[in-house]
Amino acid sequence: MAEKVLEVIGLNKRFYQKKKMFQDPIPPVKAVTDVNLTVYKGETLSIVGESGCGKTTLARCIVKAIDSNEGEVYYHNRDGEKIDFLNGDKKTFKKHRKDIQMIFQDPFSSLDPRMTVFDIISEPLKANFKLTKEEIEKKVSDIAAANGLNINYLRRYPHAFSGGQRQRIGIARALVTQPDIVVCDEAVSALDVSIQAQIINLLKDLQEDLGITYVFIAHDLSVVEHISDRVAVMYLGRIIEIAKTDDLFFTPKHPYSEALLSAVPKADPTEKMERIILEGEVPNPMNIPSGCHFHPRCSYATDKCKKEVPALVKIGDNGHESACHYANELNLKGV
Ligand code: SF4
């Protein structure tokens, strides 16, 4: 049985807007609703979905970059302790903050242009450890070299580096504290395809060497297929399917996943793509449809779908779960 490293239980995040005088109350934006997840040591769990589905908000709630409304996040550390990461005391959070790090989407805005690369990478070390100047120098040089950065350029500023190199700096900053878990929020989306491949290979190599667990937030399914052990699909703030990567890509059990997969480009140009075009827009998260939230866009929807919310339940015994009333009956197409 794989070892748990992160547990997310009943996580909810709503955004409230202030109403003006004499205005009717404004319903909250339900960005994340009842998310339950278990992440195992050394794996890459990808979270995918359209823009606005809540995946980045979920990532930020997990690392406590923003407060959630309800829910729990437990981190299982190397000593076998179960740490209440969200609701524990400040001292516990401060102690374990370094163990869960984040890599951000935009390598241009996520680095302070007034700090040298050395200062950027060394900042988490100075904040979390009591180290000598020499120890900091060594750790920064080691992690920069492991990330393919030239250690002679560490006194330069971020503007002197290309997009790919800046993302390497962001990765070095996230990994310098030797975290157990790294949440990668669209970490390669802003990069050119060839640079994406380099960064993904770098992340995989670092995972092998350091035993890191990744929670990988992405919308590009080709990238996700390459890097993930398991994939969770989000729609309107909920997880609607989760499975091992091959199971999800070849035998999806939710019509929304089937539609997403139909847009994945085929490696063979002679192979015909039958793209499923979803009807309508993603519904307003302030006014979520009744029953199955996907029913207004689902070509398999029935009356039951309009009334009853499908629970995320196990399909078979290989860890595949789907939130569709007809998951066992529909013959959905994978890649
Ligand atoms: Fe479609 Fe109904 Fe399944 Fe929802 S429950 S995905 S509407 S078939």
What brief labels describe this structure?
single chain, about 325 residues, alpha/beta, 8-stranded mixed beta sheet, about 20% strand, binds iron/sulfur cluster
Could you explain the architecture of this structure?
The protein has a single domain (4-18, 28-114, 178-322), classed as P-loop containing nucleotide triphosphate hydrolases (Rossmann fold). It is built from ten helices and twelve strands. The chain has helices at 55-62, 90-96, 117-128, 133-146, 163-175, 193-210, 221-227, 245-250, 255-261, 303-307; strands spanning 4-15, 29-40, 44-48, 70-76, 82-84, 100-103, 181-185, 213-218, 230-235, 238-244, 313-314, 321-322. Strands 6-7-8-3-9-10-12-11 form an eight-stranded mixed β-sheet, with helices on both faces. Strands 2-1-4-5 form a four-stranded antiparallel β-sheet, covered by helices on one side. Bound molecules: iron/sulfur cluster (SF4). Iron/sulfur cluster is lined by residues 254-255, 292, 294-295, 298, 300-301, 305, 310, 324-326. Residues 254-255, 292, 294-295, 298, 300-301, 305, 310, 324-326 line the site of iron/sulfur cluster.
H/I helix tally: 10
* Broad CATH class: Alpha Beta
Global mean pLDDT? 91
**Total number of β-strand segments?**
12
- Class by SSE composition: alpha/beta
CATH topology: Rossmann fold
Low-confidence stretches: none
Approximately how much helix is present in the residues? 25-40%
Shape: globular
SSE string, helices as H and strands as E: EEEHEEHEHHHEHEHEEHHHEE
CATH architecture: 3-Layer(aba) Sandwich
Tally of structural domains: 1
> Superfamily at the CATH H level?
P-loop containing nucleotide triphosphate hydrolases
- Beta-strand content estimate: 15-25%
Strand order of the largest sheet: 6-7-8-3-9-10-12-11
Give me the Rg, rounded: 21 Å
